[in-house]
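Schema walk-through. Below, the input block comes first and the output block second. Nothing else is stored per chain. Lengths vary across the set, and this one has 490 residues.
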Amino acid sequence: MHILMVSAECAPVAKVGGLADVVFGLSRELEIRGNDVQIILPKYDCMRYDHVWGLHITYRDLWVPWHVGAIRCDVWFGFVHGRKCFFIEPHSEDRFFERGQYYGFHDDAERFAFFSKAALEFMLKDNRRPDVIHCHDWQTGLVPVLLYELYQHSGMTNQRVCYTVHNFKHQGVTGEHILYAAGLPNPHQLFQPNRLQDDDNHAAVNLMKGGTVYSNFVTTVSPQHAQEVMHTDQGHGLGHILNVHQGKFGGILNGLDYDVWNPVIDELIPAQYSANAVEKKYDNKAALCDRLLLRKEYKPIIAYVGRLDAQKGVHLIRHGLHYALANDAQFVMLGSSPDPDIDREFRHLKHHFNDNPDCHLEIGFNEELAHLIYAGADMIIMPSMFEPCGLTQLIALKYGTVPIVRAVGGLVDTVFDKDYSGRPEEQRNGYVFHQTDETGLESAMHRAIGLWRHHSDDFRKLMVQGMQCDYSWARPAQDYLNIYNYIRDL
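--- output ---
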């Protein structure tokens, strides 16, 4: 099968978040299964060009109709760790992708609407006819709209679209002018409640809503999150349209790249280990203490790795720190915040605990340190307010670091409480709480610390059961192939 991914990100060449990891990991697994997979990305000036091999122009002077004229583009090709990637470079005074960063500009909607148009124009002019076009997030929501309103009448009649939403919070809400700029016929007919009109702001176009309405199938990144966005406010206004189109909507759990996150082969940790030789994990714990100047005593290390923002339950992360230290445990954090107030708060905490031998807060992100924390910590907390899928808990499980999570989104689908899960005891792998206040987190942390301190054999068994979980891309890739085959027959 010929599959063409259209995305704003792909790890490691253009990565802001988990979207990039999904595009790379899923593409590779689909290729392993014998499919021809190509990826179309913008050619950002801030890309990691050191991860692209054989970069060269493969299509010159691609003229993309835009507003009342056209913008000339070059399309580059290169391999990103084996993935076949095309990079669209527009030559325009707007300098759409020459901004020094990926997102955060007033015209982001226009930048990525143009990218969506250019991707289809490239497919059309270069005679590329994939069986399935797989689009990701609001940035490519206009692709299925353009395909079925415009490009199917120009020779792209057999292409089908799968559309994956990774984060419903950001939907590409913009002005009606986007429809005119993209050259869509009869824009006023598209600007309707059952098509692209935003449900909250009736004067605005919603690109994610367009992708949802026009795609042949829509997925999000875990089965639990699919239910949440349909029936709670986590759909951020798209709940109604998702219910209207529920026959073509479902959740597929993301996978984890075990070539990157695997303690058996991880070259970024001092001691490799496995579920059959888990005692070597404690060499990494000692190395973590050395690196972060923590005292080496018989105490559990509890960690947090990730963004510091409201979604991640920042108030509970802060409370988890205090609770750990008050209960004779150590706490390690690696994270940063885009919010100046939260950043300021945690820098103050870092200063306050600077000389505490049981605590280390690292503001920022360091890939090598992240691997060492996963390998050296005993437990990790994820008190998220919402979590579409989550990769942190999947990594922690693989590294035998027991996750303590809130029962939301993909965390529900992957972490099963040691004491209260309905699953068989041998399938349980962590601790789960439900409340959004401090009580639930304290209860889960109390149970985890107690098991570590008083029942070490049972704690080690829980670690091993987590390491034996399979959250690779094998199953989700097959789920996506089933969807691709289904929509090809429509």
